[in-house]
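Researcher: Excuse me, tokens okay?
***
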Amino acid sequence: MRPRVRALLLALTTATASVTVAASPAAAAGATLTVNVAQPFRPVTHAASGGLYGLAENSRPADSTLLPIKPNSLTQPAPGVGQRPNGQPPGGDSLLVAPQATRVGAGQFIRMPDIYPDFPYRWVSWDDWLAKVDTMVRARLNATTVTNVIGWELWNEPDYTWNTAAAGNFNDGWVRTYRAVRALDPQTPIVGPSTAVYNRSWMQAFLIRARDTGTLPDIICWHELQNPARIAADLADYRNLEASLGISPRRISINEYAAPRRGGRARPGGQLRRQVRARRRRVRAPRLLVRVRHHERPGRQQQPADRHVVAVQVVRRHGRQHGHHDAGRPDRPGRLRLL
């Protein structure tokens, strides 16, 4: 691991009074990060450890690979999965991988539209969708030995994948789907709207409709697939919006993060920036903060070998954390880029 990454991890997770971290020779030589060990702001939860479609049937990957990283939560396809991620065969059915997820300590969010094979999803009809919702929920309820389902994710990236022309307005569709799930399952948390990006006006319209119809999600979700500098501002803006609408604070999930066009999913610095900024904003969910998408589109899997090795080490070191996260402040904000 590069010295500056090691130093930052130590500064954030151990009882160090201060440490000098060189973010880059030109920009931050001699910059100091002071950590106040008397001011912990949250316990270590390994909330950033998990995966999108991270498990496949027949214990793939092996428990021995997963246990060291202490996976907190996973987003897995719906029962009866049809989704073919990146052209791969359907797999990772949430009910079939549940025993392994439980063994390694991970909760599961079930992504319901992954019952469809295509992405973006190809809408069929409301009769088809509601019948599929009924089938998925009943299958989960009948799986009485499964104990680690921690949320129904009703749709995925509706600002990108929802077919308004065929299915109507998404906010109306959310209400119908929410009520269909709740009619069968009154307890499992509901997650959404799971947009591809955070957009205030889009979120405001969604929240107003959900508030007025009694269909607010238990966990608010969106994706941060762009610049990591957006995360803190987006979180703050959401909290202000939520309060302005008279909505009680929801738990927040940022369940996909990285900048794929910049290779951010394999860059350890990019991983750390997103984790630290979300952690400092005290993003909370039952077992979820941010997760890495493990499946890449064709042509995006090839990453420099040294970068991949360092990224793996970051994930493993994240799994070794214990105790509390302490508050830290750089003497020259903006120079320590990871913060």
